[in-house]
Amino acid sequence: MILEVKKLQKVYGDKTVVNIEDLQIAAGETVGLVGNNGAGKTTFFRMLLDLIRPTTGEVLSKGQNVMQNDTWKDYTASFLDEGFLIDYLTPEEYFIFIGSLHNLSVADVSAYLNQYGEFFNGEILNSGKYIRDFSKGNQVKVGIAAALMQKPEILILDEPFANLDPTTQIRLKNLLKAQAGNMTTFISSHDLNHVTDVCSRIVLVEKGKVIKDFKTDENTLKELESYFSA
Amino acid sequence: MLSIFLSHQRKSFWRSRNRGSSIAGQIVLGFFMLYFFSLALGAGLGMSHLLAYFFPNQDVIKSFNGIILYYFAFDFIMRLQFQELPTLSIIPYLHLRISRSKIVRFLNVKALFSAFNLWPFFIFLPFCFIKILPEYGALAMLMYIVSIFSVMVFNNYLVLYIKRKSITNTLYTFFGLVVIAAFAALEYYKVISIMAASDFVFRAIAAHPYYAFAFTLAAVAIFYLNSTFLRKNLYVEELSSKQEKKGSTDYAFLNRFGKVGELAALELKLILRHKRPRSAVILGFFFLFYGFIFYKEKAINSDAFGQMMFGAIFMTGVSIIIYGQFMFAWQSAHFDGILANKINFKDYIKAKFLLFTIGCTIITVLASFYGFLSPKLLLLHLAAYFYNIGFGTVVVLYLATLNYKRLDITKAASFNYQGTGATQWLLMFPYALTPILMYVPFGILNKPYWGLAVVGIFGLIMLLMRGFWVNYIAKRLEKQRYKIAEGFRE
Question: How far is B251 from chain A (nearest CA, A)?
């Protein structure tokens, strides 16, 4: 198991925001986290990334508690929100900075970025703008591309499809599907179509609890739709 | 309509997010404002004495006339740097059924709410009543007031017009200050005299009071110019300062420090690309003149380093104190990113130390011009320098781990006290008192140079212990990271 969540709880005041008894994710799985607003998805992701201290319980990455040491950062890449972007840099500077953290040279980074010309749709590179001046969709593209550039074993994305244009949504889906098997991907989404399309496994959360956890098949979308329309 | 706009403005001021979050900060700020205004009022009331003191061989009215234009030249430069364009506040109204002229009127009225439009009243009005009235009579006094008021309004709208039309940057401000200083120097050596010109103008007003309306006409003209421009260009993206094309930068000299240099470069960009930290840095350069207040001839001659210590510590360490007081919070917008990425806490802290050391070194080198006053001051600066980079940095970074207040650095700099808490004010005490306390016993024993040596050596020892401090602060940061990140997410 590459990721294990054990008895994880986060309590704010008298409200339990996340309460996950046990969740195991095997290497190479593509897992979709689905739930309404306030289900605790972002809080859960933040605990996976050691950004919030859990009230109780632990997150194990390759068997090691993420709170105790940093080795998980070597193989985990993530993009939750704009708070992950250093928005006063140009995209190039940002990619080079992120690359340098993983010992990629400037040449490595530009070679990598060249493959993404299509994904960026010619709007990101050499645009003469800082990241903060981009539209939200383009900021998300920068964040996702920077995460993928790290060639992570674990990729965590919070609502990656939101704010993206249709073309890019499809491209992102293809990118993620192409990685299935080599990369463990954990994404959350409100878009049931996309998430059932991309993910091999769906975890449904409500009020912080996992209420369903199943492999996707042709009935999954219907099942989810009936759950959410109820 | 105008009153509705203004009531919205008032609400946005009182209900802004960061208000009330730190009442202590607000109170301290209030006291500062009060202090400055009473200072201005004091200067205004005591104007005749001040003028007699600074220009002893001259008639006070002549001196008064002489300084008015100087004041407004300086006022103009300062406005260019600090006065805000009241543009963003109109966005929610543009698409509604409100005529353009009303919106323009609102922008114009709002522009008058600036501290710059208060100073002249405090500084110049009392003198008009005290001296001009008995000397030239009521009409002339009234016209003096009209002309001063008109120049103020003229400056107000001219600056807005310039700011809207073009890209102003800090370099212009600096350049403007140099020009004023040059004129002052020419004045001093009696080459050209602006004071005489200013005096000539205002004497003419005293003699023919209605001449004052020339200023009023100029003010009205610039007001109309500004309004027409606004009406024609009422698009937010055209009204805010223009955008230049942004390029990527690489600081080669930081590359030799590896990952630490990488992080330091990141922070250097943060400083240079945001208004608030940039003005903090510029403020730091202004404090270079602080020495002229503290380094009195008497103190220098009697080796009274204790008295001068505060000035020296503050001046050489200004970058550490001013920038360091909001440490980590500068990065609050992307602190999550820093935590989630593969950044070692030790490297992160080392980068801060590196940046502080560079900043402090530059300022100390610049401050060495005080060596012309007395070479002794260089020794004092050296001791202060070691203290600042050795121990000051540690104090600042330690306190930074206790700071959980988010800072929005994209917001304007002047009179923005968001993120200011009790820590910031308390910071100064241990920072400035420690070296003074270390020095005092030697001062009393009349061994001033020993005192300096102790302060310097203390700093040097702390500098040698930097490895230890890096570990210590990195550990603290590791412990506090959730709390800090949570505060920064607010």
Answer: 11
